[in-house]
Specification:
Elements: E1 10-15, E2 21-28, E3 33-38, H1 51-56, E4 59-64, H2 84-94, E5 99-104, H3 108-117, E6 122-128, H4 140-144, H5 147-158, H6 160-171, H7 189-195, H8 198-211, H9 217-227, E7 241-246, H10 252-263, E8 267-272, H11 280-291
Parallel strand pairs: 3-4, 3-5, 5-6, 6-7, 7-8
Antiparallel strand pairs: 1-2, 2-4
């Protein structure tokens, strides 16, 4: 059984050159091989999917709050590719050697952006139930967004300021105790089975509560950044990429996995029958083994 935790070995902040604060946490073997895990949307740095497996693999796991989440200050007009600058500063400050990165769900675009911009620093990319680009995949807009979200998406493309306002209005619920609504209903049979473990449920609640520390700033910024063109093609990724997804996840997940597998040059694709968005809790050891 997995041993998830939201209590890191180290929880730190640094001050970036532009004055913003960036928060990150460390888990596992702090003298081990570094691996970076990029959280989903909405989420935060406060998650280690399996503490025992991370330590057994000799991995120093780093998790980072994107701007507006947790303890990382917001950043105006954040983009998928632009966020890489934050990581570069963090890596330089920590003197990180080249290492792999895993993007879970909404962290996927940022993992790909790291690979694109930092081919000498990122040794491999893992994509777990990862979000992908919307434009090149037929039917992705309808599969991944509700009718109201699609309207805001289209408005953002026509009128940036008005689109941002619409996104902010749609994301306003993620403030105060609004994050609790994520746990008010079923996540689907496959994910409900994962959440039946009290330790897993408590870890996810903690990372989500931390994500909402500053209200919806990070959540809205993620949606805006991922809705805009990414400024690169996944076909330009040169590192080996591992893609994992659960066959019982939302329809956009297999669509994204198929598109990425068909367009990234060096890909290994793994599917988990009967599992959904939370499969990484049960497969973290093998995911780490593939990356290190």
């Amino acid at each position: 059984m997995a041993s998830p935790t939201a209590t890191p070995k180290a929880d730190r902040t640094i001050r970036l050159r532009d004055g913003r604060q960036l928060a990150f946490a460390e888990w596992g073997d702090l003298a081990g091989r570094p691996v970076v895990l990029l959280h989903g949307t909405p989420a935060s740095r406060l998650i280690c999917l399996d503490e025992d497996a991370t330590g057994a693999a000799g991995v120093r796991l780093l998790t980072v709050d994107r701007p507006g989440y947790g303890l990382s200050d917001p950043q105006a007009d954040r983009t998928v590719v632009g966020w890489v600058d934050d990581f570069v500063e963090l890596a330089e400050r920590l003197d990180l050697p080249p290492c792999p990165v895993i993007g879970w769900s909404g962290g996927g675009p940022y993992a790909l952006a790291l690979g694109f911009r930092l081919p000498d620093r990122i040794t491999g990319i893992g994509l777990a139930a990862a979000a992908g680009p919307i434009d090149p995949v037929p039917g992705m807009l309808e599969a991944s967004l509700s009718e109201g979200a699609r309207a805001a998406f289209r408005l953002l493309r026509r009128d940036y300021a008005a689109g941002v306002a619409a996104m902010e209005e749609r994301g306003a619920w993620f403030s105060g105790d609004g994050w609790e609504r994520l746990f008010a209903e079923s996540w689907g049979d496959a994910d409900d089975r994962v959440l039946a473990d009290p330790a897993t449920l408590e870890a996810i609640r903690t990372l989500t509560r931390e994500a909402a520390r500053q209200g919806p700033a990070g959540y809205v910024a993620d949606h805006i950044a991922e809705a805009l063109p990414w400024s690169f093609s996944v076909s330009e990724i040169t590192q080996p990429v591992h893609i994992w997804y659960g066959e019982s996840d939302e329809p956009w997940a297999p669509m994204t996995a198929d598109y990425l597998a068909a367009n990234i040059p060096d890909v290994t694709l793994v599917t988990y029958p009967g599992e959904a968005h939370l499969f990484p809790f049960d497969h973290w050891a093998e995911m780490l083994a593939a990356m290190v």
